[in-house]
Each structure stands twice: as structure tokens, then as C-alpha cells.
Specification:
The chain is an alpha+beta fold. Among the domains are: about 170 residues, Rossmann fold; about 190 residues, Rossmann fold (3-Layer(aba) Sandwich), CATH 3.40.50; about 150 residues, Alpha-Beta Plaits. The chain has 23 helices and 25 strands. The strands form six sheets. It has a six-stranded antiparallel beta sheet, covered by helices on one side. A six-stranded mixed beta sheet has the order 8-22-23-3-24-25, with helices on one face. The chain is elongated and about 200 Å long. About 20% of the residues are buried.
Length: about 1150
Amino acid sequence: MGLERIEVENFKSYVGRHVIGPFDRFTCIIGPNGSGKSNIMDAVTFCLGIGARHLRASNAKGLINSKCTHASVTLYIELDGERKGFKRHVNNDGRSLYFIDLENVGYERFREAVEGMNLLIDARNFLVFQGDVNAIGSMMPMELTRLFEEMSGSIKLKEVYEEKQREQAKAVSECSSLYEEKKEVMSRMKEAEEVREQEGMFKRLVERKHEIQKEIVLHELMERRSRRKDINDEVIRLELESKEVQELIDSKEKEVEMYRNKINEIRREYFEVDALMSKEKEVVAERRAWKYEAEQEREKRRILIVEAEMEIKSKEEMINGKRREIDRRRKEMKGIEGEYAELCKEEEERRRRLGSVKEEKEVIEEKEKELLEMCGEDKENMNTLDLEMFSHRMMRDDYKRKVKELREKDEELKSKIKEKKVIRGNTKVKIDALERSEVELSRKILHHEERYKRLVSEEKQKNEELSWILGEILRIKGKRRIDGRRSMIVSTVETLKGMFPGVYGRVVDLVEPTQNKYEIGLSVLLGRHSQSVVVDSETTAMSCINFIKEKRLCKMTFLPIQNIRDGDEMRGIEDVIQEYGGGVRRGVDTIRYDGRYRKVMSFLLKEKLIVDNLEIARDICYGKGTKVSVCTLDGIYIHGGGYLISGGEIGRNKFQEEDLDELVKRRTRILDDVRRIQDSKNDLSYVEICKERIEMWRRSRAMEMEVMKDLDICIEELESEVAENSKLLKEAEESLRHVLEEMEMCEGKMKELRQKVEEVECSLFCGVFPNAWFKSFEEYKEARDCESFELKRMEYESVRGRIELRIGTLEREVEGLEKEIRVLRERVEELRVVEGNDGEDMSEDTSELAILSEKRKRKLEAFEKARDEFKEINEEFKRLMGKKNELDQGIIYCASAKERIEEEIKNTLSFAVLEEIEIPCAGRKCVGKVSIDEIDFSGLERSVEELRRELEEINQKISSQAPLIRVGEKDGDCSRYVKISAEYERQKAAAISAKNEFNEIKKRRTHIFMECFEKVNKELSRIYKCLTMTETSEGNAYLALENTSEPFKEGVRFHLMPPNKRFREVRLLSGGERTMAVLSLLFSFHAYRPAPFYLFDEVDSALDKANVSRIVSFIISSTAQFILITLKPSLFQHGDGLVGVYKDPHEDASKILTYRLIE
């Protein structure tokens, strides 16, 4: 199963307790940036005790949420049927506690349990953080070597290796010192004058010992020389064969390259023809659409011309009206200017006349006083009437102005109504034209539109069917991979049954459902135990496990019958079965099996029920709260713990198979149908254009109708204003008539009073008036008191300003209308220009399209033929490359063996020099360094076994004679020699022992490293080819050691050849290529030491859609559990489940949403 779920409490952005999961085989963690996705990976890292430098925090205390005082993370992991809970708790002091299944343990035991599930804490073989891909891709060779040491576990022997190396060096050094001291004693013994018989015997034994050691050394050198010669011969043979294969590879590579170029050329030509054909189809479709549109375009142009002409006519009428008003205003201005000139003359005359009577002013004033005394009351009445007349004149002028304004407004409103009616008529013409065009074009494309809709519906149906088929193909490929593993299990079980009598077989082979309807339910209840193997005892199980480990076969679970205990059934199950009658039965009651397997079946199906439907299952588990596991007949499984799993899909039934080839053929047929539908749609593309045109016309008609509706409302409002204005005009004219009648009455009264006053004035002013300037006193007084000139002058300036402003406004409006008319006339001229030829012949285009179609067909056939030929040649090329790799590997192994033999020869010669053994050389005296090819082995007669036995006897004699020599020796040289010799032999044995121990550690470390390296290298080549395979090429990748004898001392080089590119190191690749290479390496480590789950953090950031699709296909086909943090829909849409992470803005904390896609 892998990682089941994660429980976090107060960890980083998570406040309170959160359950993340359950996790399926392929789960994606999604959410916006900053929501807390990567904190889930930090939680796993923290829980398993990985270093703080990967947690994005300075210390463990910094992982606690700022609102809380402690934090904890619990992981529930299942591996090979064993489920464990790992928990780490940290308090505010930074102190951590570790728990396994709620038991408080120390860190060492916690780490041991974690690594026991293949979760390597130092190597982090199950985690890939952000940036790890680039970091691994940029590693130098020595860094890659350390990565392999961590993954293989050989790094655990590093300290022991270095310690043994130091011990060996120390032992050799001490042995050399003793040898020098022994040599010095021997020299003194040789210089002694008296030699006893015992000393002579002792010396002869020593000399004989040296001779035997010499012969033994020569035997060892001869044997190693023979082995070296065999290896040299093998290397020469392999190199010759490798050279021949390389020549074949070079030749085949040229042929492959030639075919690849040929295929690329044919593909290029095919795509060129296809592009030309597509372009020609577009041209034909456009011309067909244009043929249908041409008529409508002409009608549209005619309507636009009529509209423009009507608008020009309307604007010309408006210009004429405005020009008439300008002429009227100018005439009015001219009349006002004449009146003003007359007024100025009258004012000059009045002033001149007043100046002429200035001398008589005093006389006139005296007489005026007399007149006032005589006619004061009449004068007062006249003033009163004059005031009334002034008021009436003001009212008259106001009413006249109002009547004038109302009449002008009436004319303006009527002009606007006329203008709006003209615009409404134009709009009505436009609406009618659009409606006629729409009806006519809809009638023409009606049949083609129905066919186009059928094609769209059919294309949608085919695409849905194609999506379903692609999903089925991916599912079946993944299922076939699982079935392949099951086939390996079956063959392994058969082998074990032949070797060990206590092996009975798989559980699924030992049971049979009593009825076919129980098959799915039993498959779900048995689960992974359906492939478990039943054996008689634990001894048989251990023998099988050792055999599987030795042969490196598949993983298997064994169920020993003797070790399984019978347990009592939970109380209440019998009551449940009786309550529901035949709708509920025990799982063990639905199978037939041999009686000797009763304990196993009872163990596997204990407290597990099969029910008829989901309602009964829910009632048992949730309604009654019975702690049993229940499965329905269609595979819906409710665990005793409460969670529910949907298991009714076809993939769970072991008796059903899918035909992948049939699905692939069906997919090909659907793709052909989709291509045919698209061609037909392209032929009818003008229908879509016409529909768009009709829709555009409908929108235009709707807009014009809205405009016409607004015009009707506007006209109605203007007519209402005209009626209101007429009413106001009538009222103003009536008021003006009343004012004029009142003014006539006042003038009559004024006339009577004026006559009476004039009689008095004539008598008083006789002799003064009349004169040359004034006829009467009244005329003089009126001229003197006149102030109307200033008022009239101000009124004149005001009227003149208004008229000039109105004339300027009208002239600007006329200028704007003339400009609009020019634009409209230019538009009419443009519309009258006929563009293109509506009756163009399309037969030439159709024939050209048929020629291109035939040419594309021929190119496709040539491409498929060349691709088939290329596949055959490429397979041969791959076979040669594989053979070349095997030969190169053999050469490497021979070179490594040769280096080891050379080292042994060197050690043997060093030993000979140390023991002063003279090595015989052929044809010369041995001086200095000796080559093994120069050594003379002709004197060897006895076997090495005889020599070793004699050497043992001599050593015993030397030891037995040592006391006699010590007694008889005066200066103690012999005694000291014996002591030094014994110490020297002991140190030599210690040096040899240290060397053997060092070589053993070196061998173990090398073996562990090479075992990992070779398996990963093999898997890397396969996986990288799978992830980079295209129709015509594929990538290649391999790892190379810089030192094959001690690989951990030097680097590992990672070489790749992306498709259609040359070999290069991984750190020299682009971002996407490097990501694919590193992921291939990480997936390859899974083959060597599979972890229960893998957690990746946005490793797809540098990948395009094609590479993401390849990664998804690989993950789906894999049996491992993958949990990916990603932002790409093209990846997470294929997951079995989604874990959504979002940030709650109110609590400022991360929240979790889980969605199971497989349900």
C-alpha cells in the first residue's frame, strides 16, 4: 500500500489537527502558491528525522505554528502487510520525542525501524525536493559516487574500510621494522668466529626455510602469471570481437542515420504537401463561402448606398434650411444696423437743438414753474398714465419676444420631427433589407447547416469515445504490468513447490467461490493476500525466503499454517447474519477449500462479510456500529475502521481480460473517422461563416429596431412638445392682444390730458415756443428728458451679439454637414466599385486539391514503408549496441581482474624482497625490480602443497631447537634472533590478517556498490528509452566508472544521448532534458531498493506537455506509490486522487480538501 495518510498538528501553516489523505497509488497535491503544499513534504521530512537543512527552518522550534506551543506529525505506512505509525513530537523548547505505534522510543530505534522499510534517511531515496533535480543534474562525478554509496548502503562500510586500511599500513610498518632488526642480528651472527653445531643446524634450517619460501613464491608467481595470460588472451579476444562489432555498429549507424534522414525528408515532404492541401482546402472553402456571400454583399452595398444617398439628401435639406436662416438673420442684422444709424442721427439732432436754446433756459424754467402750478394735477395724472404705458410697453415687448421665441421653437421642433422621420424611414429600409438578406441566406444554407450540425455532433461523440479508449489503453497497460508480476509469482511458486514439499500454493489457487456472484467480493476481501503463498511451517517459509533472496526473485508473502492461531469470532456477527437472512453471509462461507487450509482461510476472512447491497452494508457498519469489514457483491468495501473503498471496477475481477490490440485498432479507426469529419467540416466551413453573417445581421437588425423604437419615442415626445408649444404660443398671443387694448385706452386718456396741458402751455410759452428748433414746450421737455438712447443702444448690442452668435453656430453646422456629405459621397463611390469576380470558376481549385490529396497519400505510404524498414534496421542496431555494451563490460571486468592479479603479483614480489628471497631470472642476474615475464620457473619440481608441509615442519624444528641455542649462545644473538623471528612471524601474520580483513571489507564494499550500480545502470538504460521514445528514435543513457577496482575512490560519469542528438554528460543538457534524465535515474534506484512510497515536489516545472505525458504514462504503468506536488492540470488530471491545499484568509492557516478520482 505505501503511505496511507498523514496527521499533522500545529505544524507550520497548519493550525490544529489535520488528516491528509488517504493517499492512493497515484495522488497529486495541488493548490495555489503560498497555500502550504510544500509544508506537507516538510512534515514527512520532519517526522522521519531527516536533517533540518531540508525543512526551510533554522531549528525544530521554528516548525511550530506561531499560535501554538507544540507540533507533531504522524505517518501511517504499510509495507508487505505490515502497518506502522511513525510519530515525532516537538515542544516549545525544541525537544523532540519519537513514537512507533504510540510507543515512545529512542531515535536510534526509530531510525532503524524507518530504514527497515527501505526509507533511507541519509540518501532520501523516497523524496525529491524543489531544486533536487537541478542539483543531481549538476553533480560532479565524485558527488554521483557518494549518491550511489548512500543509495547502496556501502557508505556504512566507509569508516570500517578506512580503519582496516590504517591497521594494515601500521602492521606492514611494524613488520618492516622487525625485519630490519632481524637482518641486523643475522649480520652479527654471520660475523661470529665460532659456530657451534647447533648453530650450523639452525642456519641450515633457516636456509632451507628460505629455499622453500622461494619455491612457494615462484609457484604463486607462476600461477598468477598463468591467470594473467588467460585474462590477456580473453581481453584480446573481447577487444577483437568488440572491434568487429564496432565496425558493424558504425556501418549500421550510417545506415540508421541515412534512413532517419530519409524518413525526416519524407515526413517534411508529407507535411509540406499536407500544409499545401490544408491551405488549398481553406482557399476553396473561402471561395465557396464567398460565392454564397457575394450576393448578400451586393445587396448590403445597395442598401448602404440607398441609406447614404437618403442621408445625403436629408443633410442637404438641413443645409438649405440653415442657409435660409443665415440669410434671414443677416437681413435682420442689416435692418437693425439701419435703425441704429437713424437712432444715432436723431440723438445728434436732439443734442444740437437743446444746445441752440441754452440761452433761453432760465426763462423756460420760470415758465415751467408757472405751468406746474397751473397744471400740476394734470401733469401728475399724465405721469401716472405714462408709468402705466411704460409697464404696458414692457409687457408688450416681453410678449412679443415670447411669441417670437415660441414660433422659432415651433419651427425648430417641426424641423427635428421631419429629420427624425427621415432617419426612421432610412432605418426601416435598412431593417427590411437585413430581414430579406437573412431569410434568403438562411434558405440557401438550410440543408448544409443540418449536415454541419450532424458532423459537429458526430465529432463530439467520436472525441468522447477516443478519450475513453485512451484511458482504457493506459489502464490495461498498467494492468498487464501487474499481471506480468503475477505471472512471475506463479512461476516462482511452481519452482518452490518442486523444491519444498511444504509449499501448497497461492491463496487464489486454493479457493473457489461457491457461486460466481461472489467473485468480485472475494477478490476485494482477500486483497493483496490473494497472491500470498500458503506453507506448512515457518521453517519452510524461511527456506523459501532465503531461496528468493539468493536468486533475487520477486517479493512474496508466506502464510505458515502452524503459526496461525485460531481466534474467537466477535460476538454479534451471528445475530447480524440471522437478522438479514440470506442477504448477509460470512466471507469464509462463500468459498470451497481443502480442510487443511481452514486456519488460513479463517485468518484471512475473519470478521469479514459479503452482503447483497450497499444499504445493508451501511446499516451494519454505520447504523448498528458493528466493527466488521463488509463488502457488497459489486465490490464496494467498508472497512471495520470506517473508511469506504469502491472496488467494483472490472480490473478487480481476475476472470476478465481486455483485448489491447482491438482497442488500438478501434482507436485508429476513430482517428480516421475524426480526420474524415474534420475534412467534411472544412468543406462546409462556409456554413459557419454564413451562420456568423446571419447572426451578425440579426444583431444589427435588433440594434436598428432598438434605434427605430427610440426614434418613435423621440418623435412622439417632439410632437408632444409641439402641441405644448402651440398652446403656449396661443396663450402668449392672447395676452399680447389684451396688453395692446389696454395701451390704446391709456393713449386715449393721455391724449385728452395732453390737449388740455398744451392749451395752457401755448398761453404761457407764447413768444418762446414755437421757434426754429422746437414747436412746443412739450417737445422741448421730451428732448431734454429723453434717456431712451442708452437703453436702445444696449438693446441693439445685445440683439446684434445674439444674431452674430447664431449665424456663427449655423455656419459651423453647415460646414460640418458639408464635410459629412463629402464623406458619405466618397463612401458611396467606394461601394459602387465592384471588387473581384463573383462568377469565378472553382473547377481548377478542385482538381488541384485532388492532385495534392493523391500526392499526400503516396507520401504517407512511402513514410510508413520507410518507417517499417527503419524499425528493422534500428532493432538490429540496438542488438549490436547491446552486444557491444556486453563486450565492453566484459573488457572492464577482465581489466579489473587483471589489476587485482597485478596487485597480487606486486605484493608477492614485495614479500620476496622483504624476506630476501632471490628470484631467478632467465638469462641474467636478478638486479633491482623484476618483471614476472623474466622469472625462470624451470627449477620447480615439487608441488606447492608438499613445500608448505615441509615449511611447517621446519618452523616446528626451529621452535624446538630455540632453547638449546639460547643456552649455548654467549652473546645472545641466536636467542635474540629466535625472539625477533617469532615476533616477526607474529607481526607478519598480523599484517596478512589485516590485509585479508581490509580486502574482505573492500570486497564487501565494492560488491554492495557494484550490485547497486549494475542494476541501476541496466534499469536506467531501459527507463530512459521508455521516457524518450518517439516514432523514429529513442534516447540512450548509461553510467561509467572511472575506477572499476575501487569504484568509490573515484567518480561516476552520467552519459546520455537524447533522441536525434549526440552523447553528452547530464550536466550539459537543457532544463527539460536534464529533468527527464534525473527522473530516469531516480526511477532506476527504485528497481534496486524500492521504497513504500515516493514524494516529489514540483519536479515537472521544466517539462513540456509531451514529457509530462510520458512521465504520467510511466507512473501509471508502475506498481509503486507516487505522491506529486504539482501545478499542472496535464499531470494531476490523471491521478487516482487529489489533495487540495488552500489558505483560509480568516484564520491565516492552511486547510485540506481530498478528492478520490477512482471512486
